[in-house]
């Protein structure tokens, strides 16, 4: 659920073509780019042996909710989620005293479990190793036998429990939360803000089985502090020494997250749903701006996907070094600059545009990762990828710009070395040091490509069906693609195989020719060749610019499913230029096969030189000092980067002039 914020995308190599062979078929990395200091720690290899428990915590997600089931201990639990394991964790009520200066927690936990197997004499649960348990009692008030090793708590049952038994326990424990920093800080203490967003302090089920629960979280803090948390605020008690806040989770969740500060709150209703902004006093003046952005995003998402899935939404300001955003159920935690656009003159990260992009990504998680949870480790893109797609889609439609999709595609194409590429539909992606680039950036473009192939209306219908089928539950990648295939009537096997289960992208050499036709018109032939052994299936729109009125027109979509594809089109007059996939919907790198004709007009002429001049210095590689840096510049066009070094400059003009010997339109 987290989008890390950095100006330069993390990378190790950029793939460039040999500069002395513009039409060469050997694509190889030749330029090593320097990594910025703020990203060095992000490039460390993540731990191996990923489990669902690890993924939820260390990939900084915050996946929440399943069936929309009101909490009632007197009712049967047969409609609540049960994904296996020895037991199913049904409810968890946590009452804690929290010291915002040190992070020390003294807590009482009351849990309800459902036994999944007969003759269960041991119940394993996950509980943080650094917390000390003082007692565990069963529902009769008797002491419960237990043992603990590392993060595993085992309770011994005598006599053994039977399948379907409902068991209740109360546990007392205390400890200081550990704030390991892997991108987004999971907790912080001692400053203006104290929080525990995705660090361990309560019970979890088996680390290899998704286990969601309902319940409540009650947090007591010193007087003068306010608490904002996941769930619905049911009660706030203000005392002389302590304030106490109780939050009820009416929907199944896996996270109890909270933040403590001297918060001031503003509220408005969106279609009857309370939307609240919580900041410190100095930023109250920005509440209206944030509410306006939030309202616009919610209007878009509720039109495209479904009604807002929960009963309220809280947007919570965190410290400047929080690092980004985090969106568990019904709550969005974001770094302080998102709320204060005057901070450092621009909000600390790209100004108002970045405010929209970060808020839209985190709010999208209310659907992707909360309304529909992730069932398996290899389905992380159903949370992060769909959230990033939703954010970029909102930006495209509301601000008429595909820059987010294009930049995301560039991040993958130019920064992920082939030897480090892994399928985005595998558990390996969660362990990759390129996790953000793969699970966020590439995945968002893959979902956009799917929308292009199916069409906007069909894609929207498929997403509506996906929500209707798996809302307040969990899904995996097979579930998603089976749903989209059933709604669209399109076999998506090839699409999933090459983009989700596979790696890489097509390298395409494009060439065009124009000639007089027998009937006095003009024939334009577009030829496309895939470079490399792997053949991708791609649906590439073809756009032409008409000579007379400079009008741009999409004339066809070429389905390229072989090494070589060509198509011929007739016009009354010669066209000025042609473009393959002008909106850059697909992941690919396209070069002109004719060095002197990068605008694909079919002739090397002055129009190529003019277009090259327009494209000058729209670079993705920038030199600073003795180093080169990558930046995903959406205005960069690889067809005009003739030597494929990431910079469109005088060297490319020299190559253009050298190649400007192509015969003009054939009038014979």
Structure explained in plain terms:
The protein has 668 residues and is an alpha+beta fold. Among the domains are: 63-262, Immunoglobulin-like; 375-499, Neutral Protease, domain 2, CATH 1.10.390.10; 507-623 and 639-658, Sandwich (Immunoglobulin-like), CATH 2.60.40. Helices cover 21% and strands 32% of the residues. It has 11 helices and 32 strands. The strands form 9 sheets. Strands 6-9-4-3-12-15-14 form a 7-stranded mixed β-sheet, with no helix packed on it. A 5-stranded mixed β-sheet has the order 17-18-19-21-20, covered by helices on one side. Strand 7 (146-149) and strand 8 form a beta hairpin. Helix 2 (287-304) packs across helix 3 (351-364) and helix 10 (606-615) runs antiparallel to helix 11 (650-658). The radius of gyration is 28 Å and the shape is elongated. Residues 1-77, 342-350 and 662-668 have low confidence and may be disordered.
């Amino acid at each position: 659920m987290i989008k890390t914020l950095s100006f330069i995308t993390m990378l190790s190599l950029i793939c460039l073509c040999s500069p002395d062979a513009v039409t060469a078929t050997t694509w190889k990395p030749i330029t090593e780019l320097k990594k910025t200091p703020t990203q060095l720690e992000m490039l460390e290899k993540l731990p191996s042996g990923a489990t669902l428990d690890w993924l939820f915590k260390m990939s900084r997600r915050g996946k929440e909710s399943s069936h929309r089931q009101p909490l009632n201990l007197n009712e049967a639990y047969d409609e609540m989620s049960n994904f296996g394991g020895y037991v199913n964790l049904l409810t968890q009520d946590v009452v804690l005293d929290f010291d915002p200066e040190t992070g020390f927690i003294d807590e009482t936990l009351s849990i309800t479990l459902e036994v999944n197997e007969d003759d269960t004499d041991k119940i394993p649960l996950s509980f943080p190793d650094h917390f000390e348990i003082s007692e565990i009692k069963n529902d009769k008030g008797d002491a419960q036998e237990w043992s603990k090793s590392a993060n595993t708590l085992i309770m011994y049952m005598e006599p053994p429990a039977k399948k379907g038994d409902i068991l209740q326990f109360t546990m007392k424990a205390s400890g200081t939360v550990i704030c390991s920093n892997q991108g987004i800080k999971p907790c912080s203490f001692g400053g203006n803000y104290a929080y525990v967003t995705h660090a361990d302090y309560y019970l979890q089920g088996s680390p290899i089985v998704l286990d969601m629960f309902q319940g409540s979280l009650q947090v007591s803090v010193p007087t003068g502090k306010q608490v904002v948390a996941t769930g619905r605020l049911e009660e706030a008690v203000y005392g002389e020494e302590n304030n106490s806040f109780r939050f009820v989770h009416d929907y199944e969740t896996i996270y109890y997250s909270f933040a403590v500060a001297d918060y001031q709150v503003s509220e408005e209703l969106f279609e009857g749903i309370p939307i609240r902004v919580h900041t410190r006093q100095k930023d109250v003046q920005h509440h209206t701006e944030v509410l306006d952005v939030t309202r616009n995003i919610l209007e878009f998402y509720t039109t495209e996907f479904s009604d807002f899935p929960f009963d309220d939404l809280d947007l919570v300001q965190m410290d400047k070094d929080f690092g980004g955003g985090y969106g568990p159920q019904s709550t969005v935690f974001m770094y302080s600059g998102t709320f204060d656009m005057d901070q450092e003159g621009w909000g600390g990260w790209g100004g108002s545009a970045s405010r929209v992009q970060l808020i839209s990504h985190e709010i999208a998680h209310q659907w992707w990762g909360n309304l529909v949870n992730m069932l398996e480790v290899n389905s992380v893109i159903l949370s992060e990828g769909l959230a990033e797609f939703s954010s970029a889609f909102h930006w495209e439609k509301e601000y008429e710009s595909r820059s987010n999709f294009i930049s995301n595609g560039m991040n993958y194409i130019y920064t992920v070395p082939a030897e480090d590429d892994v399928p985005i539909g595998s558990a390996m992606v969660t362990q990759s040091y390129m996790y953000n680039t793969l699970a966020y950036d590439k995945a968002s473009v893959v979902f956009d490509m799917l929308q292009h192939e199916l069409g906007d209306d069909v894609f929207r219908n498929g997403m509506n069906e996906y929500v209707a089928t798996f809302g307040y539950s969990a899904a995996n990648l097979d579930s998603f693609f089976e749903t989209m295939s059933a709604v669209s009537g399109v076999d998506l096997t090839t699409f999933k195989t090459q983009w989700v289960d596979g790696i890489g992208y097509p390298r395409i050499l494009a060439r065009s020719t124009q000639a007089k036709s027998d009937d006095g018109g003009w024939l334009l032939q577009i030829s496309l060749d895939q470079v490399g052994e792997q053949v991708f299936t791609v649906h590439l729109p073809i756009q032409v610019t008409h000579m007379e009125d400079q009008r741009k027109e999409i004339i066809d979509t070429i389905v390229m499913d072989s090494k070589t594809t060509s198509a011929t089109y007739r016009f009354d007059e010669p066209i000025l230029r042609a473009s393959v996939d002008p909106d850059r919907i697909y992941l690919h790198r396209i070069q002109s096969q004719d060095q002197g004709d990068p605008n694909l007009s079919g002739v090397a002429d002055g129009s190529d030189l003019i277009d090259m001049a327009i494209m000058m210095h729209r670079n993705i590689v920038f030199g600073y000092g003795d180093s080169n840096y990558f930046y995903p510049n959406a205005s960069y066009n690889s067809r005009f980067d003739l030597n494929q070094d990431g910079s469109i400059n005088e060297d490319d003009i020299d190559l253009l002039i050298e190649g400007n010997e192509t015969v003009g339109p054939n009038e014979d």
